[in-house]
Write a structure and sequence with these properties.
CATH architecture of the largest domain: Roll
Structural class: alpha+beta
Largest sheet: 17 strands, mixed
Bound molecules: (1E)-4-oxobut-1-ene-1,2,4-tricarboxylic acid
CATH class of the largest domain: Alpha Beta
Shape: globular
GO molecular function: isomerase activity
CATH topology of the largest domain: Diaminopimelate Epimerase, Chain A, domain 1
Keywords: Isomerase
Family: Belongs to the PrpF family.
CATH superfamily of the largest domain: Diaminopimelate Epimerase, Chain A, domain 1
Protein name: 4-oxalomesaconate tautomerase
Oligomer: single chain
Organism: Arenicella xantha
Strand content: 35-45%
Order of helices and strands: EEHEEEHHEEEEEEHHEEHEEEE
Distance between the termini: 7 Å
Number of helices: 6
């Protein structure tokens, strides 16, 4: 019985890594597509029979194609292969894997790079939102080497500037999906927000922890995890996400006052494992909640003055460093809206070739 081979590349995108495919190389039928992704990355918790790394940050795939949208260059569908659960979730988006989409498209000949830098507009199929990326491409080739460093990745690499537009309601339909900036569940105040990623912000001190514990310590805290899951399950329907048992969103973010020069300190469960850092769009959502007139971050977060152009540079602290995003916002007594979020990622091509899928009978 022969195996089937499919072209792929593996790239590190930001502080994640995943398999990148030309969408045309996979079936359009979602059931058959998902079976291929599961075979390629691995179905069991260790992903021993696939290329996935057995953690949420290394069990990801991107399906890329020339865009179907008039104002975009590329379409990007993010697929989370849920570790150990033998299924694929396309509800969330991923701003880390997005950083590798442009390099993949150029490396695979899907589109041509400019000499110097290449600006591409990416349509994020999961959310219907758009992001402009600026990639270093001297001599029309992707430059991976450079001086940008990001938390969670050793060393430095060429910057990939990502400018996200109008992210509000990416999965839930509105910025504050419950209709409130504050809700109380199980006696705990929460802020549910979706500015690119559905996130629930909670005060660490409401859970008898400081919020500065290591991810390993928090992962071992079964009482904390059970309380978070109870709140999550109740919030799923209120956030328009339905039954979120086993779903990748919403993420649960415990906040506490900053320890360094950031605006807030975070420990984020994605959603069952504590992130060693914080996701890109997760950080944008947390920063947005901090900037909002009222949220559980009020009194916890420390906001800087705006930049000369009116934008805000907001540094979100996390277990392995900080994540800075630059938000442009319209803030008044009556309304609050974030119009764009800018940030820097890096990416690197790790391997390319063919991934083999087991013969079916
Ligand atoms: O929030 C982790 C990551 C992510 C997702 C997660 C991400 C994002 O660190 O945009 O990048 O929240 O599951 O890659």
């Amino acid at each position: 019985m022969t195996q089937t081979a499919i072209n792929y590349m593996m790239l590190r995108g930001g502080s994640s890594k995943g398999l990148y495919f030309n969408a045309a190389d996979l079936p359009s039928d979602t059931e058959r597509r998902d079976q291929i992704l599961l075979d390629a990355l691995g179905r069991d918790a260790r992903q021993i029979d696939g290329l996935g790394g057995g953690t949420p940050l290394t069990s990801k795939a991107a399906l890329v194609s020339v865009s179907s949208q008039p104002d975009c260059d590329l379409d990007y569908l993010f697929c989370q292969v849920v570790v150990g659960e033998n299924r694929v979730d396309t509800a969330p988006n991923c701003g880390n894997i997005l950083a590798g989409v442009g390099p993949f498209a150029i490396e695979s000949g899907m589109l041509k790079a400019q000499d110097g830098e290449t600006r591409l507009r990416i349509y994020m199929v999961n959310s219907g939102k758009e992001c402009e990326v600026i990639i270093q491409t001297p001599n029309r080739r992707v430059e991976y080497t450079g001086s940008a460093s990001i938390s969670g990745v050793l060393g430095t690499a060429a910057p990939i500037v990502c400018n996200y537009f109008e992210l509000a309601g990416s999965a839930c339909g509105q910025l504050f999906p419950t209709g409130n900036t504050l809700d109380t569940i199980d006696g705990v105040d929460v802020t549910c927000i979706d500015n690119g990623m559905p996130v629930v912000l909670l005060n660490a001190t409401d859970f008898d922890i400081s919020g500065y514990e290591t991810p390993a310590e928090l992962d071992a805290n079964q009482v904390l995890k059970a309380r978070l899951q109870s709140i999550r399950l109740q919030l799923g329907p209120l956030m328009g996400l339905g039954n979120v048992d086993g779903a990748a969103v919403p993420k649960m973010c415990l906040i506490s006052p900053p320890q360094g020069s950031g605006i807030v300190n975070t420990r984020t469960f994605i959603p069952y494992k504590c992130h060693d850092a914080i996701g890109v769009l997760g950080a944008v959502s947390v920063a947005t909640a901090c900037l909002a007139p009222k949220s559980v971050a009020t009194g916890v977060a420390t906001l800087p003055a705006s930049n000369a152009d009116g934008s805000f540079s907001l540094s979100v602290e996390h277990p392995s460093g900080e994540f800075t995003c630059v938000l442009n916002a319209e803030r008044s007594e009556q309304s609050f809206k974030v119009t764009s979020a800018g940030l820097v990622r890096t990416a690197r091509l790790l391997s390319r070739g063919q991934v083999y899928l087991p013969a079916t009978d």
